[in-house]
Every structure is written in C-alpha cells, then in structure tokens.
Amino acid sequence: MTVETKLPYDKDYINQFSQDRSEPEWMQVLRLKALELADTLEMPKPDKTKIGKWNFSHFKHSAQGEKISSLDNLPVEIQDFLDKENKSENLLIQRNHSVAYASLSNELKDKGVIFTDIFTALNEHEDLVKRYYMKDAVSVDEHRLTALHAALMNGGVFVYVPKNVQLEVPLQVIFWQEDPELAMFNHVLVVADDNSSLTYVENYISNNNEKQTVANIVTEVVAHNNAKISFGAVDNFAEGTTTYINRRGVAYRDASIDWALGQMNDGNTVSENVTHLVGDNSNSNAKAVSVGRGKQTQNFTAKIVHFGKQSEGYILQHGVMKDSASTIFNGIGKIEHGASKSNAEQESRVLMLSEKARGDANPILLIDEDDVTAGHAASVGRVDPLQLYYLMSRGITQKEAERLIIHGFLAPVVSQLPIESVKEQLTQVIERKVY
Amino acid sequence: MAGSTLEIKNLHVSIEDKEILKGVNLTIKGGEFHAVMGPNGTGKSTLASAIMGHPKYEVTEGSVLLDGEDVLEMEVDERARAGLFLGMQYPSEISGVTTSDFLRSSINARREEGDEIPLMKFIKEMDSALDYLEIDKNMAQRYLNEGFSGGEKKRNEILQLMMIKPEIAILDEIDSGLDIDALKVVSKGINKLRDENFGCLIITHYQRLLNYITPDVVHVMMQGRVVKSGGPELAQRLEAEGYDWIKEELGIEDETIEQNA
Ligand SMILES: Nc1ncnc2c1ncn2[C@@H]1O[C@H](COP(=O)(O)OP(=O)(O)OP(=O)(O)O)[C@@H](O)[C@H]1O
Ligand SMILES: [Mg+2]
C-alpha cells in the first residue's frame, strides 16, 4: 500500500521559503533533512483508523494575512474569542501566516517573558528556540507527518517564561485560517523554566467547508522543575481541513502540565496528546472533549508516560457522536520501570446520539513497575433514560433535557478553560455541532 | 379558585409484565395533605412513578386525571408543567449540570420564551430558599446530586419543590436518611407551601415525619392497593402496633405483591 505523497513543494521551494524569512542556517538544514525523511518514512498508524485515503498532500502552503489596526476591526466571529476580562493584553492573532496583531504587557516583557510568533523567535531568540525545537518532545523522524511538519513549518508561536516568573493572566493565541485553501503547519513551543507558571490558550478557526486543505500541527510544551503549565485549546477547523495535531508535553521534577482540549474540528482528524512525566513527583491532567458529526472520522489518543517516581497522570476523554461520525478514543497510561509509587488513571466515555455513529473507547494500561496504582473506566452508551426522566419530571422538555445532559457530559473541559470568552465559544461550538 | 385535583382511578401498573398495582383509587385536592404508608414492596413508589410517567412502568388499566385532564396521555415534562411534582426516593445524579442551572431551566420551562426569569430575581429566590432549608450556598454550584449524601439529595428535592411550586406534589420517602435536624428543616419547607392551592401526597414509613407535617388523610397500601384510609390517628396506631392488625382485619397473609395474589 503506498500513499500518495508527491508534494508540489521541493528542496528549492523550501530553501527559498527559509531564506525569505532569514531563518538561521540550522533551521534551513533541519527543514531540508526533514523533507528527505518525509520521502522515506511511513505515515503514522493511528490505532483502528485508516488514514491512507485522507488528504495530506493537497493544500496551499503560504499566504499572507492583513494586519489589524485595532481589535475592533476584527470580524465578530473572531472578536467573540477575545479575553475581555483581561483586555486582551497578552494576545497574538495569526491571520493566515502573518501576525495580524500582537500584544504583550510591559510588565511581562520586563520580567523577560517571551511571547512571539515562531519566525520572530527564530531570529531574536535563536538559541532558546534551537534548544527546544523538536528536541525533547517531538522528533522530526517519528513518521512522515512529523517530517513534513518540520520541512514545511509555516507558522506558530514561541512562549518562554523565565525562572521564578508566575503569570497571573493567560496568554492567548488565535490562529485564524482565513484563506480556505491554506495549510497550517503550525509549530507551537511553550517553555516554562524552573518554578515558573503560565496559562496558555489557543484557538484554531477556519471556514473552508468545501475547499480542501491540511493542518499539520506540532505543539511542544516543556515544564522545567517545579513549573506549572495550564494549556487550553479549542480546535475548530472546518470540514475541508484534514488535521493531524500532535500536542506533547514534557514535565520535569515537581512540574505539572494540565491540558484542557476542546476538539471540535469538522473534518477528519488525528489528534495525539502525549505527556512524558520525566521528573519525580511530576503530574498531568489531560482532559479532552470532542463532538463528531456528519461523516467525519476522528482518532484521538491521550497518553501519559510515567518515568519519574510518584508521578501522577489522569486522563479524561469525553466524546459525543452523532450522524454517521466515527471516532476512536485511545487512552494510554504507561508506567516505565523505576517509576515507583506512580498513579495512572483514565476515564473515556462516549455518548452516542445516533444509530449510525460509531465510537470506540480503548483504554490501555502498560505497566512495567510493581509498586504503582492504576485504573481505568470506559463506556460507550446513550443518554441515560433515567436522567432524562428526572430532568423532564421538573418540566424540562426532552430536547432541553438532552441538551443539559450533553453539555454536562462535556463540562469537564469547558469548565476548565481559563478564559471566560473561550469557554463561552466552546459552549456555542458544542451547541452548533450537537443541534 | 381553590387548587387542583388529582384523581387516581382503578390504577393498574406493571413492570416488566409483572403487575404491581392492582387497582389504586385516590383523590388529592388542593389544600389537602395525604400520607401513604405501607410495608416495603407494596407498591408505593410504583404509584408515584406511574403518576409521573417513569419510563419503566406501564399502566395497563385505569386513569389518572389532573383537573379532569388525562395525565397518562401526557409526556413526563407535560405532566410537570401541568402541575405535578415528584420528590424521588432515588434522584439521579447529573454530572456537569449545576443545581442552579437545572433549577433555572425548570423554572423557565414553565414560562414563555422571551419571558425567562431574570437572573438576579432567580438568584435571590434561590438564595432565600437555600437559607430557608439551611443548605450551604455552594451546593447550588455543585453538579446535580453528584456526590451528594443521602440527606443532601433529599434536601435538594425539597429545594426544587419550593422553587417550582407545583399544584400537586408527591414526596416519596423524603424523610429517609435525614437526621432529626434535617427532618425538621425539610418539614418546615413543605409546611411553608401549605395553602389551599397546594396538595401533597407524602409517602413515608415513619410517624415521625407526620409529627411535623400533619396529614389530613392517611392511607395504607398492601398488595398493590390502598387497603385502608383514615385520619392522622391511623398513622399513630401503625407506629405503635405495626401492620399486623390491619392484615388480620382484612384477612391478608402476605402483604407484598404476589404474582397471583
Ligand atoms: N425494575 C423492577 N423489576 C421487577 N420488579 C420490580 C422492579 N421495580 C420494582 N419492582 C417490584 O415492585 C414491587 C413494588 O415496589 P415499590 O418500589 O413500588 O415498593 P415500595 O412500596 O415503594 O417499597 P419501599 O417501601 O421499600 O420503598 C416490589 O416487589 C419490587 O420488587
Ligand atoms: Mg418506595
């Protein structure tokens, strides 16, 4: 079985692309090497989902987006996501591949916080980016899509919080794919140095219902000793976008990485969210919710790997399936030898709203150490008739009762998102998708 | 105008093809408090569930009318909006839905679209009901019944009762699992609703509750029927003597529901 991978983008194109952005040489070298690898490596093989026929090669690689003079000039649908409470003082809007808007409070600048697009970071903070870019979290050579990502990376952000700096307000990024054919090869790199803490929230938005394109996104999140990262996301690519999104975290000693992912794409999607608990006493809460509708096929993997002693990992995945959508939820808790006194828990639940939908929850525990605790719960089912009865017995209509139950089912992530407007937007996206 | 009337006539109810209720007759009018007592497994909860429209119970014969309207033709939510309320023996847990959101939806379900209860007014009403029932304000923001203790669930049912203000309420063992103080508070809540527009059917095993909420009529259920009715003194006698004298009086050997009784 061979997959069509002939890309309209070759060595010369990539060289030029890199030069146009005055990238450091190592970046150019990395891209070219990745392009070669992309030819030889296999596609990833998400468990129980065949992606052989998915579109990963038809897309437009580069397009600019206009700057925004003031946030008031944004289309309402984008404005809705802004963090009004904090006056959007730490906000970056990437429109197609241009930075349309960027703001970081002076206070954070003074503390040495870096919050900028990836190309600026490559020029202004080259060493830092080089230190982390596809090193400790995701590797270029994992499979064809990671290699393609590295070769064609065309957007993204870099976040760095220095030692001992605590961020009180969230950093927010809106990735707005305005051009319906444009591919997002976004690279997001978030680094929290020792004893620091931050909250980061990103939104992916597109409107290409008919036009086909690709999103191939790699996100690397590194929490150094005793750092705390809270990462929230709402993915909302339209039907025409085929998405591969890889979000990976590395937590060192006493560090924590919490994920709250609203996975609301309308197109075919492979999403993996993996956290490596490298340090002793590190922990991660990985929560993700999703809604599948139409004919979309999705494959979600939430995985936490324990290396450090006394590391704690908790996975929660809740999915609602309607129409003839088909989704696989893989939950993997892995405890390596030596990670004694660790705890790996997971819960995967799928709520089926139609006969034709398909939803599978695969809980997996891989344990190589005796002195640990672990547990999993998985279920695939329909709306509980007794819950419906209870709500309806108070006068609530069946439709409204189902609505409450579904929103309640997806609440673990909604309630976790740190920005009120993003919470509201996710609630509305859920509302739109479910009804 | 004085309250609603709930008429239960010759009600037969089956669950999974087993007949549980075998002809129940009862009429509850606004202003009246009725108590239903009876040994375990004699059909009390079945009666309550069938009136509300629990999906598992099938009415095979008889009728239930609310102010002359056929309740059995209505969906569960329509029954509630028509004025019925059931405080459940085992209320469901609904994860992700706060008690407060649920209550607001319940109240708004009774109002026209565009005429939803103003948020501030709702919060004020809820706070005063919470105070009245001595419930911790945090409970309103907790997920409905999730992780609630037995007593908290019962208090929450009464909170809903007080805010929804139905015409006719059926309370199924609202006193079970309550400590003495909670029992007093819950009774206080129910008594507050007492007026000529509110009728109530209280299912209980204990005279204790009836010390706080004096019933106008007491019914005894056995074998899926109401076998005896009387005044408050009937409950006192049951408390003192148990059910044997009724069984003797009526010649009943096994009070539970027998397949071919
Ligand atoms: N799902 C069911 N399947 C089979 N039998 C059932 C079911 N639910 C109830 N029953 C039976 O119906 C009968 C009446 O039950 P019901 O709950 O109405 O009793 P009750 O009078 O409320 O008892 P208690 O005082 O213990 O609450 C019992 O024999 C019970 O076992
Ligand atoms: Mg009962």
From TrEMBL, chain A:
The SUF system FeS cluster assembly SufBD N-terminal domain, residue ranges: 87-173
NCBIfam families recorded: sufD
Signal peptide segment: none
Annotated gene: sufD
Annotated SUF system FeS cluster assembly SufBD core domain residues: 177-409
Coiled coil regions, renumbered to chain: none
Family designation: Belongs to the iron-sulfur cluster assembly SufBD family.
GO annotation (BP), single: iron-sulfur cluster assembly
A Pfam family matched in the record: SUFBD_core
Protein name listed in UniProt: FeS cluster assembly protein SufD
PANTHER family: FES CLUSTER ASSEMBLY PROTEIN SUF, UPF0051 PROTEIN ABCI8, CHLOROPLASTIC-RELATED
UniProtKB/TrEMBL annotation, chain B:
Gene3D superfamilies reported for this sequence: P-loop containing nucleotide triphosphate hydrolases (3.40.50.300)
Swiss-Prot/TrEMBL keywords: ATP-binding, Nucleotide-binding
Keyword ATP-binding: yes
Coiled-coil ranges per UniProt: none
UniProt xrefs under SMART domains: AAA (SM00382)
Tagged with keyword ATP-binding: yes
Signal peptide: none
GO MF annotation terms: ATP binding; ATP hydrolysis activity
Residue intervals of the ABC transporter domain: 6-248
Family to which the UniProt record says this protein belongs: Belongs to the ABC transporter superfamily. Ycf16 family.
Protein name: Vegetative protein 296
